[in-house]
Write a structure and sequence with these properties.
Shape: globular
Largest sheet: 2 strands, parallel
Structural class: mainly alpha
CATH class of the domain at 7-69 and 106-117: Mainly Alpha
Number of helices: 6
Strand order of the largest sheet: 1-2
Number of strands: 2
Order of helices and strands: HEHHEHHH
Distance between the termini: 23 Å
Strand content: under 5%
Helix content: 40-55%
CATH superfamily of the domain at 7-69 and 106-117: Winged helix-like DNA-binding domain superfamily/Winged helix DNA-binding domain
């Protein structure tokens, strides 16, 4: 991306970087935690612009973000879908078809994470 990175994208990427291994979050949850309530679609767009080399020296685990129904949003069977599914399974997240059971794998950040990791 040759244009200047939007500040909202940085907020989103930082928030996604805090999702622990083996957990997932919804687009809307990330938007809320990034201080951008109601901007779930912006989260999806921002994840499409993550630099391949990562951001601030770290990878952005885009694959840990799913839709509010607990589904992978990429087209079923596509290369991107299969990549996301495999990356989640590598972290012991159970993916059945295109669905992840949110009650088992949704990230529920602690107050410490909210106060000290998410700095906006």
């Amino acid at each position: 991306m040759t244009e200047t990175i939007k500040p909202q994208y940085r907020q989103i990427w930082q928030t996604v970087q805090t999702i622990p291994v083996g957990k997932v979050a919804s687009y809307g949850q990330i938007a809320d935690l990034a201080g951008l309530p109601g901007r779930a679609r912006l989260v999806g767009k921002a994840l499409g612009y993550v630099p391949k080399s990562g951001w601030q020296g770290q990878k952005v685990p885009w694959y840990r973000v799913i839709n509010s129904q607990g589904k992978i949003s990429l087209p079923f069977g596509s290369k991107g879908f299969e990549q996301q599914k495999q990356l989640l399974q590598n972290e012991q997240v159970v993916v059945t078809g295109c669905r992840i059971k949110l009650k088992n794998f949704q990230w529920q950040p602690s107050i410490d994470e909210l106060l000290f990791k998410l700095q906006f």
